[in-house]
Each structure stands twice: as C-alpha cells, then as structure tokens.
DNA sequence: ACCTGAACACCGTTCAAGT
DNA sequence: ACCTGAACACCGTTCAAGT
C-alpha cells in the first residue's frame, strides 16, 4: 500500500502536488502580483509551496533564472491576433490594434511584474521589450508581412511599436501598482524636524505646479494610449506609401 | 537642506575628505555606472569610501533612500533650456528638441542607472519618469507656457513627451549597457546536454527571424529617436491649432 | 528521485560603545 | 560629532545526507 511511486505521470491526489518548474513560476508570479518583486525571495517562495527553499534549485538555476522564467511566462501569454480574433478583411491596422491592447492587458494585470518585463536584458540584444520572445516577434513580423509590409517596413514597425508600448505601459503600470511595494505602514508622525520629503512635498516654490496640480493628477492614461496608438498607425501608414 | 552642519566648513586636507551625503551619492552613482545596480550594497559602497557600512546611515535612511537620492541627483543634472542655449526667437519646438537631447544624454551617460529612473515610484503620483522632479516639471510647463501653450496643452505635452522619452531611452540604455551586470565570466563550456538556452538560442523554428536577423541587429536607435521626436512635434503642433 | 539540515558567505540595519 | 564592533535577522546557494 505504501508502494514506491511507479511511472505514473501525474497521479497525485494530495492538495499539495509535487513541485514543477511551471508550478514554481506560477507561484512566483502570484507572489509578485500580491506582494511586489522585493517579496520574491527563494525562502518565501518555498514557504508558499510548502517546501524548503533549497528544493527549488532542482527546477530553477537560482533567483536570476527564476525571474527570467517569470518574464518569459508572462510574455508567453501575449496572443498574436490570428484568424480567431481577426477577420481576413482586417488589415495590419486591426492587427496592431488588437495586439497593442493585449500587451496592455498584460501590463495592467501584472503591474508589479511589468518593470521586470521592461528592464531585464532579453536573451538576444535585438529582442526589444515588451515583445521579447522569439515566438512573439516571429509572429509579429509574419503578421505584418502577410498584410502588406515588406521586410524593412516590418522591422521598422517592430521598433516603433515596441518603443510606443514600453513608454506608455510602463507609466500606466506604475500608476496602477502605485505604492504597494513598501507594505502600507501606518504613517509615522515622529521626526517632524527631519526634511520629511515624502509626506507632502513642498509645492510652495512651484507656482505653476500648484496651479496645475489637479490637471496633472487626472488619469488620462487610456486616452493617451489610444491616441498615441492611433498616431503611430498614421505614421506607419505614411511610411508604407513612401 | 537642514543637514547636521559641522562647525568647521571644510577644514580637511586629507585625501579622504569627511563623509557627506553628496559624496556618498556621487560614489553610489559611480559604483552603479561601473558595476551595475546589483553591486551597490551598503558594505561595498562603504568600502569605496574607506568607511564601514554603518557609517553611511548617518547620512542616508537606508538603501532605499540612497537609491532615491541617486535618482534625484541624476534627474537634477537635466538642464532646462534657458536663454543660454536658446535664442528668444526659437519656439517651443527648439525647446523640446534641446530638452529631449539632454535627457538622452543622461540616459546614455548612465545606462545602468536609467532603469532606476524609469521604474522607481516618484515622490508624487503625477510625476512621470524620466521628468520626475518638481524643478524639472515646473520648468517644463513654464517653458511651454511662455512659448504659446495654454495650461491643458502644456499638461498634455508633458504626458506625451515623457512617454516618448521613456520608451525610447529605456530601450536605448538597455542596448548601451547590454550585459554588464553579470560580471563577464569566461563562458562555461560544460553541460552541453542541458538546453543551453542563452548561448545561441535556437532560431531554427523561426524562419522569418532567421532571415531578418541581421536587419534586426542593426542599431538605428539614434535615427528612431530623432524621427519619433520629429513626429511628436508635428503631433503637438496639430493639437495646438485645433 | 526528490527533499532537507546544516553550513557558508553576504546582506541591511540597529545600537551601545569608542574616539 | 563622527565612526565602528558586535550582533541580529534575513538572504542566496551548495552539498552531503536523509527517505
């Protein structure tokens, strides 16, 4: 009855299934989403998996490799618009529109992880965040080629499209995840003689900022995204016909 | 700065002058520039200053505060175009051109630090990287206002300008600082049976990537920057007259 | 085959103690 | 006033040992 486990591929009916690289990565993503990147330590991740930290090293080549795997897992959720989401009639503009919104979904679903996607060095220098996987870039280039772009036009579009996504989505995800990294302490009132830089930074000397403060605070990130995307498409259209 | 001022102004003729917050921050920037952000530990920074790590806590509220100070110091090197660099004749286009290139200078001079500038949460939520200091934003808004922008146009320009800078310069700085973080080990030849993911990632299954590899590898970051900047100016011009 | 105990080097941070 | 020694909690990582 307590027989040593045979070849059985997945026969484990306990609540805590065996460790897997996939399960480790998924839990890591969850930990980042809920507590921030700084909270992702090997030991805490182990604890979430009911395992000692050292066990993770069977499936992951250290913390750096784990972070790499997290980024890859998230980027792999990007869906390249195919026959499912797109009518054959729709051109490259619809293709880029749908793709842009899926990358935006990724950024807003994982605001704490997006800086990793944005700043960790990709496997190859010509992979540009956030479209930083071979699969995604291949599909991106093919998608544009099959919709009328030639090679150099597709490459140029890859460059401008990634720059656009990175700038907008990094700012938007920063806005989203605002201040969740430093786990919300009840604010300390002491040390009133210190500069106290963060509480209410002194706007006194900045009349224009003071006047425009409420305008600056308004969140127009979605409008900005749509408008900038629209302008990018116009710009690409110009370059196509020249 | 209500710093604990010693009575003696600067009477220290030794090669190692006394500690200063400014000196600590400057050395930290240097450490990041030369060895990457991961190398910036309190202990190593102390060693560079011929001091024990604990001494730093007199001038800096821990590592997070130090990183904040590093970012602020770098952002403070941004020069807002004034009567010196700009003729009164020049309009807002010249103003933004000159400013954009100065921020680009910052990114290329400190490629390892730029991700910090890009991703650390600013002091106020309406401060957007990389123009994330009160001084810079005030001067930016005033600069545009004095050149014909009204309030909401200036605020809109702040949003699109920062998005543009962030996307382009983060990619360009990543390109610049490529792989200097993991201190250049002589590559290990062993373990040829493992996936060996990083050495030469397998392009076999990606025909388009294989074909366009050389095109993708070309560095056109400067052209991209100039072109995208030009298009942003055109776009802003349109919004001005509508 | 898979997980762990023990150990090591390094880290951030505090505080009483030195000068 | 300024710096340090000693200590603590936590971290990444290795490896022999357990089952």
Structural account:
The structure is a homodimer of 242-residue chains. Chain A is mostly helical and 242 residues long. Chain A has a domain at 78-241: Tetracycline Repressor, domain 2. In chain A, 53% of the residues lie in helices and 0% in strands. Chain A is built from nine helices and no strands. Chain A has helices spanning 21-35, 42-48, 62-75, 92-109, 114-119, 134-145, 151-176, 207-217, 221-240. The longest helix of chain A is centred in the C-terminal third of the chain and has 26 residues, at 151-176. The radius of gyration of chain A is 23 Å and the shape is flat. At the A-B interface, α5, α6, α7, α8 and α9 of A face α5, α6, α7, α8 and α9 of B. The structure holds a DNA duplex (19 and 19 nucleotides).
Percent helix among the residues of chain A?
40-55%
Radius of gyration of chain A: 23 Å
How would a textbook summarize the main sheet of chain A? none
- What is the helix/strand order of chain A? HHHHHHHHH
How much beta of chain A, percentage-wise?
under 5%
Distance between the termini of chain A: 75 Å
CATH class of the domain at 78-241 in chain A: Mainly Alpha
Number of helices of chain A: 9
Organism (chains A, B): Terrabacter tumescens
Protein name (chains A, B): Transcriptional regulator, TetR family protein
Pfam families (chains A, B): TetR_C_1, TetR_N
Keywords (chains A, B): DNA-binding, Transcription, Transcription regulation
